[in-house]
Specification:
By secondary structure, the protein is of the alpha/beta class. It contains seven helices and six strands; from the N terminus they run αβαβαβαβααβαβ. A six-stranded parallel β-sheet has the order 3-2-1-4-5-6. The longest helix has 19 residues. The termini are far apart.
Length: 193
């Protein structure tokens, strides 16, 4: 019972902290492209949610979390996996990521329409479909507005290691060049595994 009381106290303190956070007028956005929660239903969180909570330890609280996932999930299960203190920020988009820039659910279109340079935008891309992933990265690299919006980019770039052949054919060298180009263009790009 003491442990339960301690957990309730910690949760109240965390909620109080979250309600009082001030990002200095900067909107903070986390875009999770490939937000599969399947593997996490036996746990209380997912790797992306772990990352979000890591940012919180450094004083960055996301105002909006857009989670795109193609595989249909019952909303009750999804929101059960999302920590309560993130529910007000969490936007579950249970459709595949669209690569057409004209589609209303295209992630870059959403960012360009609703956010501005100076907002803090973090994107995680891991949808396990190379063609879509590379198309989105190409769109990012070709659009200065998007480059000015995206501050941090995590990407699980599948490359042609022996264990992944023949499914993935990108070379490790091309992957390093891609991440180098993103960084050269001002995006803090990191591998996501």
């Amino acid at each position: 019972q003491q442990q339960q009381q301690r957990q309730q106290l910690q949760q109240r303190q965390q909620e109080q902290s979250l309600s009082n956070h001030d990002n200095g007028g900067v909107r903070t956005v986390f875009v999770d492209l490939g937000a599969s929660l399947n593997f996490a239903f036996h746990r209380s969180d997912t790797p992306a949610l772990d990352l979000i909570q890591l940012y919180q330890k450094f004083g960055i609280y996301f105002d909006h979390i857009y989670a795109y996932e193609a595989q249909h999930q019952p909303p009750a299960k999804v929101f059960q996996a999302v920590p309560e203190h993130l529910l007000a920020s969490y936007h579950w988009i249970n459709v595949g990521v669209q690569v057409s820039p004209h589609h209303k659910l295209h992630p870059w279109k959403l960012l360009a329409r609703h956010y501005r340079p100076g907002d803090f935008v973090v994107v995680k891309l891991d949808i396990d479909t190379t063609e879509i992933e590379l198309a989105l990265i190409d769109q990012l690299l070709r659009n200065q507005t998007l480059l000015d919006l995206v501050d941090v980019f995590y990407f699980e770039h599948h490359v042609s290691f022996e264990e992944l052949l023949p499914t993935y054919t990108e070379s490790a060298q091309k992957s390093l060049q891609l991440f180098t180009e993103l960084r050269r263009r001002g995006v803090a790009a990191h591998y996501w595994v």
